[in-house]
Amino acid sequence: MNSAPHHHHHHHHHHHHHHIIIIIIVVVVVFVVVVVFSIIIIIIIIIIIIIIIIIIIIIIIIIIIIIIIIIIIIIIIIIIVVVVVVVVVVIIIIIIIIIIIIIIYLHMQRIGTI
């Protein structure tokens, strides 16, 4: 009945040492490969992180420079506007004063002629 399944006479007992050696070699190789790969991956990750950090720093520096330039431009514009406004106001005041003086002068003349 049960002829085929129960014939487990494996004559592999003298090969065990070879198997152990092969297993050890395989384990060592796998371990070395894994370690090397993990080291390589870690190095790559570190390099990527460093590159990202450098890029971020560069971007931040560029942004800061742009902000500084914008601030300088704004300050210059404000100064120009202020100067222009002041000049315009001064000119207007001077013109008003001149007009008032002329009016007063003419008035005095008219009073004088009467």
Question: What does this entry look like structurally?
Answer:
With 114 residues, this protein is mainly alpha-helical. It contains 1 helix and no strands. The radius of gyration is 47 Å and the shape is rod-shaped. The mean pLDDT is 87.
Write the layout of secondary structure elements.
Blueprint lengths: L15 H98 L1
Keywords: Membrane, Transmembrane, Transmembrane helix
Short description:
With 114 residues, the chain is mainly alpha-helical. It contains one helix and no strands. Keywords: Membrane, Transmembrane, Transmembrane helix.
First-to-last CA distance: 155 Å
Count of DSSP-assigned helices: 1
The general outline is rod-shaped
SS class: mainly alpha
CA radius of gyration: 47 Å
Q: What share of the residues lie within helices?
A: over 70%
Query: What portion of the residues fall into strands of 2 or more residues?
Result: under 5%
DSSP strand count: 0
Give unreliable regions as ranges: none
Largest sheet, strands/sense/barrel: none
The helix/strand order is H
Mean pLDDT across all amino acids = 87
Transmembrane segments: 20-46, 53-80, 86-106
Keywords: Membrane, Transmembrane, Transmembrane helix
